[in-house]
Queue: 3 jobs
Job 1
Amino acid sequence: MKQNRNKKWRYALGAVLGAVFCLMTLHPAYASGRQVYDDAGIFSEDEIDEITKVADEVEDKTGWDLIILTVDDTSVTSNRDYAEEKFNKYTKSDDGVVYLFNMDEDKNGWNWYIATAGEAYEYLGDSQIEEMLDDAAKYDLDGDYAQSMIAMIEDTESYYTSNTAKDMTIYDEDQGIYYASSTNHRFLSYGEMAIAAVLGVAACLIFCLIITGKYRLKFGRYHYNPREHASVDLRRNEDHFVRQFITRRKIPKDPPKNGGGGSGTSTIHQGAGGRSFGGGGR
């Protein structure tokens, strides 16, 4: 009886140790690939570590999930769909950015795409994404793809710090409507403005017809007698000059890149998984 108990304890202890060992071996692999998925095999281990370090810092500051992808697969027909699907697969967060580099030769040898989700598309609008792609292009011409990724991630932090969301307008291209960033206020679409104009004109015509009928005005035959119905009351009014005030103000210069000011428009759409995504590529 005692031997059976000892055997059970040994089995239980062995199972616990085995589970702990599996978790210890799996955790590092998960941590190292949490942001960087280099399916194209273009990054060295040192470059992956460098990218991960920068991404960690930006994630801590923004609270977003950042996913860095490389792919060299002819079956990828849409960089936008691929980036959005991988975001849904690799993270459960509502807010984040995907930086995709496609090495497919059928796409001129290179292809960048940035996908934004949740709060991220309120900071990274259409013009910000274009500037990020410009910065990436400065390095990929020399084959320094790791530095291209780092440049875009650092741009992300810069736009977040300068709070570009405060002046951002969100355009839902599926519904054709505009929203103010971080609010539920809605701007009228062109169709709605046309309907409002028609209704306004109709209401004005109805009002005019009612007034005309009420006073029975006969256009062309109705004459108003000013001598009989009008009066004039003249009063004297004098103004005295006391003093004058001159106000001067400095006209601000155009803000530098990443420095706030007008942030423009962020175009979004319903993407993979029914989630709203912004983004752009070239």
Note: Residues 23-33, 183-187, 250-261 have pLDDT under 50 and may be disordered.
Job 2
Amino acid sequence: MVRRILFAVGMPMAGGVGLLYVMSVLKENGVWDVPTWLPFASTLLSFGTSALGIAFGTLSTSWDPDREGSFFGWAEVTKNWPKLWEEEGEERR
């Protein structure tokens, strides 16, 4: 589970930081006058995707300790999502 979360959070975050660096270098060297809204939008998108990666990493992991999950985890997501809401409904009763 930790590997999936680290991957699902780390990749978008690293991409966002890398993109900010590239835009900074382009602007400092006068290659492209980056609009001020573009770093804001790319940061919002990349860090927002990282936040969703926490939920995806948790839901895409097999919750059965004896069973290894699939590579992308889609089968686990379709199984764990309803299970998560069943427990939520039971807590409200």
Note: Residues 19 and 42 are 8 Å apart (CA to CA).
Job 3
Amino acid sequence: MADEHIKAAIEVYTRQHEFYAEQTALALQFPIKLILTLNSSAVAASLLLVREAIGSNTKQPIIDAVRSSFWAFGGGIVCVLIASWFQWQLYAFIMHRKRTLLRNAISAADWNAAMSPFYNEPSASSKTSLHNWCFVFVVLSFVSFLAGAYILGSRL
């Protein structure tokens, strides 16, 4: 295939909606890291409360409050890990599709064969479902953080 066809195929591909999806997958890193930091900090603060409670006379109510909230914070950390897995799956899917399309377009024999993958894009449902599941687990993690903070605050 001529060099101008290869350049045109690459230019057409980079304007596809998957470029946006790739940027979205990378943008998911901020809420995931934020929620993971919140939950991890809450777990560390809970452990410091238990350490402080061991030296005081009223240690059992504090330990019970921390034990209940600890499960919520731990659940939030697990939800963040699951959200990270979905984000990784989304990014891997997008990058695999990008490599396959570019490889097929560059190795095509004529212009129509090079452009057909760009015109016959599959539905975005798999990308959307991965994206949605990632956000569901980020929200669940934030809700677990809030629940753990509420439990800890109401029992102390």
Note: The chain has a mean pLDDT of 76.
